[in-house]
Amino acid sequence: xxxxxxxxxxxxxxxxxxxxxxxxxxxxxxxxxxxxxxxxxxxxxxxxxxxxxxxxxxxxxxxxxxxxxxxxxxxxxxxxxxxxxxxxxxxxxxxxxxxxxxxxxxxxxxxxxxxxxxxxxxxxxx
Length: 126
Known about the structure:
Elements: E1 3-7, E2 10-12, E3 18-25, E4 33-39, E5 46-51, E6 58-60, E7 68-73, E8 78-83, E9 92-99, E10 115-116, E11 120-124
Parallel strand pairs: 2-11
Antiparallel strand pairs: 1-3, 3-8, 4-5, 4-9, 5-6, 7-8, 9-10, 9-11
C-alpha cells in the first residue's frame, strides 16, 4: 500500500520553529519529486516548497523564503520541512505529496502530484 504519513505539527508561539516529517511506505520516495502544501480554513491549497527527485532543484513560496527549508533523507524514505520564525499566517494544515515528475523538476501545483499524506495541523498562536 502506497502511503505518506506526516508528523511534527502542533501549536507553537510566533517566532518558534517546527520540523515536519513525511515518511513514505510502499514506494521509494527517491524516485519522486516532493512537495509541501498547506491549506488554511476557507482558502485554497497552496504550494509551500518542493524538491525534484534529483534533489538539484528546489522552490519556496515567497511567503516562506528565508524561513522554511525542505530536505529529504532517501535512506529513511522521508522528507522534511524545517519551519523557523513562524508567523500566525503560517497556520494551516500541511500536506506532503509525491509526484512522478521529470528528474530535475518540481512543481507547486497540487494537480501534478500523485500521492498525498493525510495532513498535519500547524497552529501559530500566542
